[in-house]
Amino acid sequence: MADFNTIDDFDVNGKTVLLRIDINSPVDPNSGIILDDTRMKLHSETIKELSLKGAKVVIIAHQSRPGKNDFTKLDQHAVELSRCVGLEVKYVDSLFSSRAKEAILALEPGQILLLENARFFSEEILKRSPEEQATSVLVRELSPVADYFVNDAFAAAHRSQASLLGFTRTLPSAAGRVMENELKTISNALDNVQHPCVFALGGMKADDSIMVMENVLANGTADYVLVSGLIANIVIWAAGYDIKSTNKNFIKSRGYEDMVDKCRELLQRFGEKIVYPRDVAVGVLNDRADVTIENIPDAPIFDIGRESLIEYSQLLREAKTIFANGPAGVFENPIFSIGTQDIINAMAFSEGFTIVGGGHIAAACVSMGYGEKMDHISSGGGASINMLAGKPLAAVEALKASKELFANKE
Fold this sequence. Notes:
Blueprint: E1 16-20, H1 38-52, E2 56-60, H2 75-85, E3 89-91, H3 98-105, E4 112-114, H4 130-133, H5 137-142, E5 148-151, H6 162-165, E6 173-175, H7 177-191, E7 197-201, H8 206-218, E8 224-227, H9 229-238, H10 244-253, H11 259-270, E9 274-275, E10 279-284, E11 287-292, E12 301-304, H12 306-318, E13 321-325, H13 338-348, E14 353-356, H14 360-367, E15 376-377, H15 381-388, H16 394-409
Parallel strand pairs: 1-2, 1-5, 2-4, 3-4, 5-6, 7-8, 7-13, 8-9, 13-14, 14-15
Antiparallel strand pairs: 10-11, 10-12
Helix pairs in contact: 1-2, 8-9, 8-11, 9-11, 12-13
């Protein structure tokens, strides 16, 4: 028996289901046009299934956060969701007012309603326990008009916000299909690792990469960790090479200077299992220059070098299991996209089971036409990285506790 309920555990026919999804999408701030519908397509399976089973589906979602230029209403999201689901998604520009509750109560079985951006509600951004979130206005106002809560927002599962945790204390709760699939796929891959297992960690969030690197090397999951992106620069510095003031200052500006000592410790503990570039690409006069790590000029490092990519590609092609998170460099610039492209190419043609974290590297896989060649592309970079680091996901723990709580009430 699973630790949490799924949609299969409830008879939703004629019932009102609060469905939390993550359709936070790139939006043109000038036109309000949604630029990518990937997450909407993912969640459409759960929405459609609930609707066809006769549920009155009430969707809670967010877009961006206060202060960002893509922090918008969800009216256009309703239009795009309708197209993706193939069913009408109604919209009300309110979250829990009397108008919103009237719209919920007016729903017929099978109908779908999208509520307003949950982050318009100030309490939503507070990090609190499920018990505390259950006392929020959002949860107190909407719980009485619902029968079940379904959390399908894997991409936000590492967050401790009201719409993700609070309803698990007030309503029988379950995981949606996206949440269920992500947890099963990543957990099964981690529990049944085929060796050699290679982790390719890049991107700008060096603290996340270091957290994962330590966990998977300490518990024996990974045979090799290939570093690129900002974490590679930190590791090269930690290994005793002079990456020059431009790159040191950038690391300091990101608040990662203390990570140098941590990486030095990890290099001492795990040695050659941590594979870092032996050459890098720097930006000189708006062009790419590949240099060895012994001869880095005082110029920004934007990619891993071509010689290092030969070693990286070979390890990836020989791997039986691959986990990848984050691009190898400033891949938006074509002359510095070589590292990211080569790593993705090697993964695509590896015979190993490949899991790609969300975010930029997932977008790069799709743009290169290799989306179908990856065994699993996660919808959530932050949530997947926390799983790889061995950290519990707040929303998943809340679902587990909810199953026990409501089983005891029966």
